[in-house]
Amino acid sequence: MEKINRSFLFIPANNPGMIQNAFIFDADVIIFDLEDAVSFEEKDSARILLREFLKINKESSSEIIVRINSLETSLGLLDMEEISNLNVDAFLIPKATKRLIKASDEFLNKNGNFKIKLIPLIETSFGVETAQEIVKSSNRVNGILLGGEDLATDLGVKRTKKGDEIFYARTKMASLCRAFKINCIDTPFTDVNDFEGLKDDALFSKNLGFTGKACINPRQIEIVNEIFSPSDEEIERSLRILDALENSPNKGVFSLDGHMIDAPIISRAKNVVEKAKRLRII
Fold first, then answer.
1. Rounded distance, CA 81 to CA 64, Å?
2. Backbone φ and ψ of 43, nearest 5°
3. Please, where are the H alpha helices in the chain?
């Protein structure tokens, strides 16, 4: 996880105005969407529009991901053929399986493109249960994005704000991504007017181990960036722990404010301070 990415903003690839303004927002990553956001009749024109924009856009402040169409159809392959040699950091692979990730990897290798990463979009129960195989199928995989809406549909259950129906999938993805040291991106919060709900949902997924969250509206970015950054309280506490460690005769275990501080807590404090520094908070 070289760069800290907290917010991932979906932009419909058939909307010229939104494409043009994508980088004025403070999202760490822009996901240009050629799949769900684009009707079948507009697939070709959206691909051409995005291709021409990416030809002009040589540099950007945000990383660029493109959600291609399903590789189970010819549309997904056309997306990759048209866009893989442009300024793109990763492809988001819908309804990812081991077979589809391997096929994406082979296509990119055959075309001599070795820099583009792959992000499996886990949005089926089969994807959840085979996620480890999916991650291991290509060394291009540097993150997973959980798709809660499609997953709930696949499970035959109602999608709720509380998210009990995707709790198992969330915990499994968080643990898996940590094991493989890759980004774990949470599903979007779909009520774009409920900012308290977004805050609670983002904080919940962060506490499970997610490293970032997808956004479907620019107004969600600020909250997501804030939640997935170390808080002032976390930074202050971590700095005090490291200062106490420096001044402690026992570098393994010591007491601070009546609490025992040992190796896991020290490691967590170091991680918080390092992340704050990388985000230029301190």
1. 17
2. -55, -50
3. 16-20, 43-56, 74-83, 98-110, 125-129, 131-136, 148-155, 167-180, 195-208, 221-227, 232-247, 263-278
Instruction: Compute the half-sphere exposure of residue 122: CA atoms within 13 Å on the CB side of its CA.
Output: 30
Both tokens assigned to 165: 């129906």
Tokens of 124: 């089926």
- Exposed / middle / buried, residue 151 (Cβ in 10 Å: 0-12, 13-18, 19+): buried
Cβ neighbours of 81 (radius 10 Å): 12
Report the distance separating Cα 85 and Cα 5, nearest Å.
Answer: 23
pLDDT digits 0-9 by tens, 97-156: 999 999 999 999 999 888 999 999 999 999 999 999 999 999 999 999 999 999 999 999
Assigned token pair, 191: 């009520």
Q: Convert the pLDDT of each residue in 177-208 to its tens digit.
A: 999 999 999 999 999 999 999 999 999 999 99
pTM, entire model = 0.92
What local confidence, expressed as pLDDT, does residue 2 receive? 61
Residues 160 and 191 sit within 8 Å (Cβ to Cβ): no
92 secondary structure, DSSP code = E
The Cβ of residue 188 has, within 10 Å, a number of other Cβ atoms equal to 24
Burial of 268 (0-12, 13-18, 19+ CB in 10 A): middle
**48 and 81 Cβ atoms separated by less than 8 Å:** no
Q: Is 258 left (phi over 0), alpha (psi -120 to 50) or beta?
A: left
The C-alpha atoms of residue 202 and residue 8 are separated, in whole angstroms, by 13
